[in-house]
Design a protein that fits this description.
The relative contact order is 0.16. Strands 1, 2, 3, 4, 5, 6, 7, 8, 9 and 10 form a 10-stranded mixed beta sheet that branches. The chain starts with a strand and ends in a 7-residue tail after the last strand. It is α+β, with helices and mostly antiparallel strands and 178 residues long.
């Protein structure tokens, strides 16, 4: 029976992080840049492990500040969602995302992520952002039209009434901003 575990990057051993990195890399068929893995560090890791202790699924929730219109939101940003290729389709991704949503709700005002797999997240309560996307780089705000269809949010409590058609922005970072 798989078990779910939540720990922070600070609580994780080097071995755990290496195993999680390998799992995510395999699930992404080797197409995971080092910067992308770096985006998954500094927050919480949700993992599903098998009876033998092998990691079968992973999701990270990292703190970010997203701006909706003129208001900043403490956001739990989901990164590095992956399931071992041999176990995909068995519900393990849904399991880690359900727990990741609990982490978001406990520690943040809103959840967000960027994906091309909308249907997977929509059935878990995530909504597509409908407004324009931007990146903040110091005092400069840069329009990111190519990201408009990829951003999804999890609204709840303080963010339940956030306008999905407003502009949304994130801070610039190495690699993919969103």
């Amino acid at each position: 029976m798989p078990t779910t575990r939540v720990l922070t990057t600070a609580q994780a051993s080097a071995r755990f992080l290496a195993e999680a990195r390998l799992l995510v890399d395999r699930a992404f068929a080797g197409d995971l840049a080092e910067e992308d893995w770096g985006h998954a560090l500094g927050g919480w890791h949700v993992v599903v492990a098998g009876d033998d202790g092998d990691l079968l699924a992973h999701a990270a929730v990292v703190p970010r500040v997203l701006g909706v219109g003129d208001r900043p939101w403490r956001t739990g940003y989901v990164e590095a969602v992956a399931t071992a290729p041999r176990r995909q389709g068995a519900g393990l991704g849904s399991l880690v995302m359900a727990e990741a949503a609990r982490v978001v709700r406990r520690n943040h005002e809103m959840g967000a992520l960027s994906t091309e797999r909308h249907a997977f997240y929509e059935r878990l309560g995530w909504e597509r952002w409908q407004g324009p996307t931007y990146v903040r780089d110091g005092a400069t705000t840069i329009r990111t039209e190519d990201e408009d269809d990829g951003v999804m949010v999890l609204r709840f409590g303080p963010s339940a009434e956030v306008d999905l058609t407003a502009s949304i922005s994130c801070e610039a970072r190495p690699g993919d901003d969103w």
